[in-house]
Structure formats: structure tokens, C-alpha cells
Fold:
Amino acid sequence: MLLGLLGAFGAAVLYGAGTVLQAAGVRGSARRPPGAPGSTRIRSAGLYGAGLLLDALGFLASLAALRTLPLFVVQSAIASSVAVTAVLAAVFLGSRLERSDIVALGAVGLGLVGLAAVAHEGGATGLGGTGVALLLVGLAPVVLLAAVASRLHGRAAASLLALVAGVGFAGTGVSARVIRVPQPWWRGVADPVLWSLVGYSLVGLVCYALALQRGSVTAVAAVTFTVETVVPALIGLAWLGDRVRPGAGGLAALAFGLTLAGCLRLAGHANPEVTA
Structure:
């Protein structure tokens, strides 16, 4: 269980740090005056690339955590990356943390400690043939909805894209929780769960990026984080055998609520504002 927790919290740190590095790279590029030396551009690109690399490592760490930990723990830890972003952005990018932000950071910390304490270690029970088919077939309407949302404009488009992004990330979490690594490993290429994981990941990433272009960071992050945290948690508890320790249901609900509430308050720090 310790390795799973390290993977979950490590993913939060990697995602949060990656966001700050990407923001620093974009900010450096935006502030680059005409005629600036090429080294400035290279440095900005390097920071952004390093951020993407940390995101990739965070994704791998979350996959490892999902092998042994319930979805409600891992998804909450991933959402808490906004807390890491908030702290690092305040230290390195000059963002300002208000008193309510500090309270939210404390809520996230307490919530994560509570979730770690009540989680019951173990792999998923599996979806079965019908469940796997539904998971893969369900990707089609999600992609269709994403295509429709991408053609809209304004606040409605941002909200719908954020919702679809949350569903995409939720599907990614569920797929990662139930996927099995065969022996030899290359046989997994034919696994429909692997293809659903790839498909939902792409939908989530693309729709989240488009939503951030068309709406406020706070609103988009709030919708996406809520869906990607709550939906997989419910699916895991209802169908995948995710459990809490006996008698700890109330504490688990309280810890989950604290974590989610704190993350929503800090949602604006998910992508630190970059101005030229």
C-alpha cells in the first residue's frame, strides 16, 4: 500500500510542478522582447518541455498507484495537484495566496491524510466482458460530444468542453484501474481496455486545452476536477470492488469532501495566469 500511496502523491507533485514549469515557459516566451537572443527562446521551450515531461511521469505514477489503490484515493490525489501548483506558483511565479487559499490547502492536506488512512488496498475486481464492452463503446458518444462542443463558442462551449474533459479523465482512471498486464506484455496491444485508456486520455487532454482557451481557468478547472474525481470514485465503489476500512465510511466521505472542496477553491491555480 505504501508504494501505491507514494505513486498517488508523487503524481500530484509531478502534475503540480509540471503545470508551473509550463506556465513559466509560456511566460518567458510572452515576455521575450523583439530581438532577444535565441537562448531566451530555448530556455522558455526547455521549461515548457520539462513541464510536459513531468506530466508524463505523473501519468505513469498514477497508473502505478491505480494497480493497488481505490479510485477515490488516486483521483483525489491527482486533483490535489492544484495545491502543489498553488504553492509553487506563489514561490516561483509571484502568485498571491489569500487566506481562504491557505485554508483550502489545509483542507486538501487533511482530506488526503484521511483518505490514505481509510483506504483498503487491493486490485479491482474487473468489469467483465460486458463492462469492458460498455467502457469501449461509451467512448464513441464522448468523442461525438467533444466534436459538437469544439464547434461552439463562448461560455457554453467552455462548460461543455470542461464536462467532456472530466468524463475523458474519468474514463482514463477507470480504464487504468481495471487494465491487466499480460505475459508477455506485448499481447496487451490487443486489449480493448488499453485502447479505451488511450482514447479517453486523448479526449480529456484535447477538450481540457480547448476549454481553457474559451473560458476562465477557475470555472473550467472546477468542472473538470469535479467530474474526474467524483465519477470514477462512484464507479469504483459500485462496480470495481473499491472499499474502505470497516467502520470508516463516514470518515472516508468527510475526507473525500474536504479534499474536493479544497481542490475546487484552488482550481484557479490549476493553470497559473500568464500575462505578457
User: Anything to note?
Assistant: The chain has a mean pLDDT of 89. The chain has one domain: 70-269. The chain has eleven helices and no strands.
